Amino acid sequence: MKLLCGIAAVAAIASCGALEMPYPKTMFYSAHGESVDEPENTMQAFRFDIERGFPVEADLRVTADGEVVCLFDADAKRVAKIAKPVAECNWKGELENANAGAWKEKYAHWPNTWIRRGYKIARLEELLKELPKGMKHRFRIRDGRPEARKAIDAVFARHPEFDRARTVLVEEFGEKLTAERVINDPVEAVKALKAGAKVVVSDSASILYAKVEGYLASKEIKLDKKRFIAHRGDSEKLPENTLPAFKKAIDGGFGVECDVYVSQDDILFASHEFKLDRKGNNLPPGKFVTNVCWKGELEFADAGAWKGPEFKGLRYARLDEILELVNDDHLTVLDIKDRRYAKVMPAIKKAVDAHPNVTPRNFFLQGGDAHWIRRNMPGWSDTACATVRRGFARYLPPNPGIPKMVGTVDPKVISRFSLMWDEQLITKEFVDRLHARGLKLIVWIVNDPYFAFAALNRGVDWICGDRPCEMYEEMKKIQND
Prior knowledge:
Elements lengths: L6 H5 L16 E3 L12 H9 L5 E6 L5 E3 L4 E2 H4 L1 E4 L27 H5 L6 H7 L6 E5 L4 H12 L9 E3 H4 L12 H9 L5 E3 L2 H13 L10 E4 L11 H9 L3 E8 L5 E2 L49 H5 L8 E5 L4 H13 L9 E4 L3 H7 L5 E5 L14 H8 L5 E7 L7 H9 L3 E5 L4 H9 L4 E4 L2 H13 L1
Parallel strand pairs: 1-8, 2-6, 6-7, 9-10, 9-17, 10-12, 12-13, 14-15, 15-16, 16-17
Antiparallel strand pairs: 2-3, 4-5, 10-11
Helix pairs in contact: 8-9, 9-16, 16-17
């Protein structure tokens, strides 16, 4: 059996020397609740921070019928589609029925994300019931009317556990936050903290906290191109799963990840899509990977036109072309999208056997069925690929299957995990647990240099992203500044 060494050995690091964050989470606030992944001033936005261990900042206004609500705007037009001031709106029968997430739909990664979840404007009463005690949560009183302050004081009086030793009313105490109202750049955040700012407010405390960790750790991390993998090739500016995308990454010294299916006439080709319906690819309607041939179809299909007119005419890369590029100077990860294992695994074995340059040291199988890999390719192991949450959205709960797999898989069968990057769940402790069992970790998709530094600081073995060439240069610049 060929040992999984070489690149794997180079990639492994001792995470015991990881930077410990010098700033506690209690110094980081999200403006109006976490407003990158959730609509601001909703209970979902506040829970996002609460579940991640951060204090809460909320804006307070009072409605015509005396309800204390969490709203930044003076009018209800943007959030509630009601063209009048919040102070003139009733909660009952009016604001309580508004979908407070619909306005954010244009920012959603997935269609109908905010509309589907039915967000409601948060009320101070319900927020105080869920706030963790012992933190200095912040409340910005936006309504200056005496009757509004009286209503706000009445709500706090019903929750004496949030006394003024633990809760900061910004307008009352006038405590300075940061030099800027909202800071999302980690360099600027560190400057503010070093200058004496008591807290930093950003659009996402969770994101900024991890980026600050990455920035502070950057000077101590030795960069190695072999630890970076180009997702479907360097695919930010080039069409994914095409030879130019793979060659750009490899010529730059980086590894590559490619998706693979097998055509009806047994040609292995790189594609992420099961349904081949991308605009301008010249394939007839109704073409799937299960009913397409290479000869006469895919060999003439356009895999670049969808990305831009300058890429028109690029075709899908064949696996045999990609295998010609494999060597020990970079890692190639084959993501087996085709679940017809009885058909695809013998084809992969045949292709690999025809390329002696391809070995378990420089070529990883991912997402396949471990049984079929053992049956067809003895000496090769699988890479378990999954999201760390129950789906792709960051607001979803953790995937309980991941910790279970980490504790039960046989490292000789599944020797690596390929997990979606999550700054909350992929911690140094989690990575240490993987390494203690002899498992390696790839995280995807990381396109931000500060996230990349944070991941490396926590001991991650490889980082997979769309733009490793550009990101690597950005990381070197951060280290040299």
